[in-house]
């Protein structure tokens, strides 16, 4: 097993793109058509990540002409040039397979903001100390 891991280590990418499940991404992959080579972009929502090491895959889903299209990309494949995160999505599940039954705006995930993480450490600066419900005045 150690020899297998040692061999696989040579094929791992040095810099991995940072994305999570629920993110809307553009996956740039290299396509060969005969003698020519071009870059094709596949845009969609990441609905799954599975595997580890060289075998790690991620699934991207998008809607084309009213039909759902999913593609599975190997993360460490040399044909994958770049993964660009267009919109960070917030997901509470490891797999978003339930999006397959949804149509239109229902397929959108909630947006994840980076400043939410900073505010989670202490009290929120936007909420005054005495306010518990919306719309009620804060006693002074």
SSE diagram, text form:
Blueprint: H1 2-9, E1 24-33, E2 36-50, E3 57-64, E4 67-74, E5 80-87, E6 89-90, E7 110-111, H2 115-119
Antiparallel strand pairs: 1-2, 1-5, 2-3, 3-4, 6-7
What do you see in this structure?
- This protein has 140 residues and is mostly beta strands.
- It has one domain: SH3 type barrels, CATH 2.30.30.
- Helices cover 9% and strands 38% of the residues.
- It contains two helices and seven strands; from the N terminus they run αβββββββα.
- The protein has helices at residues 2-9, 115-119, and strands at 24-33, 36-50, 57-64, 67-74, 80-87, 89-90, 110-111.
- The strands form two sheets. Strands 4-3-2-1-5 form a five-stranded antiparallel beta sheet, with no helix packed on it.
- The protein is globular, with a radius of gyration of 21 Å.
- The model is unreliable at 117-124 (pLDDT under 50).
TL;DR of this structure?
This protein is mostly beta strands and 140 residues long. Helices cover 9% and strands 38% of the residues.
The biggest sheet amounts to: 5 strands, antiparallel
- Percent helix, as a range, is under 10%
Structural class: mainly beta
Note the beta-strand portion.
Answer: 35-45%
What is the count of distinct domains?
A: 1
Quaternary structure annotation: single chain
Averaging pLDDT over every residue, what do you get?
82
Give the strand order of the largest sheet, numbering strands 1, 2, ... along the chain. 4-3-2-1-5
Taking all Cα atoms into account, the compactness measure Rg is 21 Å
The CATH architecture can be given as Roll
Secondary-structure element pattern, one letter each: HEEEEEEEH
What are the segments in which pLDDT stays under 50 over at least 5 consecutive residues? Answer: 117-124
The gross shape turns out to be globular
Provide the CATH top-level class: Mainly Beta
